[in-house]
Amino acid sequence: MTKICLVRHGETDWNAVRRIQGREDIPLNDKGKKQAEECGHYLKDFYFDVIISSPMVRARQTADLINNQVGLPAIIEMADFMERDYGLVSGMTIEEKKKKFLNQEHPSVESWEALSQRVMKGIDTIHEIYKGQSVLLVVHGGVINAILGSISNEELGHGKTKIMNGSITNIENQNGTWVIHNYNQVGHLSLSYSNND
């Protein structure tokens, strides 16, 4: 049974002001670094065979800070887990996007279908390579929502589930079927670091 512990990266300055953050490489802010350190402190008591990260800087910084305490020999980067490409709306605040596009998706934005196919291809690759192992996977909110939506037949995911910075979600492959054990867990974070809009 392959187990995957998904961690959303820590906060960035763009997260803090609700600015849409797709493929821009925005680093963690001080709060985000603290969130990552608290994730590492919590996760060091669990066993993992491998740590995998999105190659984007905010995810990789989070993975590095977690691995300072988890202590695995290397971090593997997988491009399948890059954040959704938001196209022309990337860099806008949520409010700016609503005003300009009236809550419609701009054609330049990667579709949820394409995002879900991409990230689930990555999940299948992990299951093929690390079957029966325990994997720590550091990614993005949109990626986690795409995974939750795919596994839950859209009961969870985009528009339904808010994924917090530094939160933990656990899934497991049981006899060929992915099962969600829990999602958006933030009990390991300091109260002041888990209040993220």
From TrEMBL:
Q: Fetch the Pfam families from UniProt.
A: His_Phos_1
- GO cellular component labels: cytoplasm
Q: Where is the active site?
A: H9, E83
Report the domain of life of the source organism. Bacteria
> Could you tell me which InterPro entries the record lists for this protein?
His_Pase_superF_clade-1, His_PPase_superfam, PG/BPGM_mutase_AS, PGM_Phosphatase
Binding positions for substrate? R8, H9, G10, E11, T12, D13, W14, N15, R58, E83, R84, D85, Y86
- A molecular function (GO) term: phosphatase activity
Protein's UniProt name:
Uncharacterized phosphatase
The organism named in the record is Bacillus oleivorans
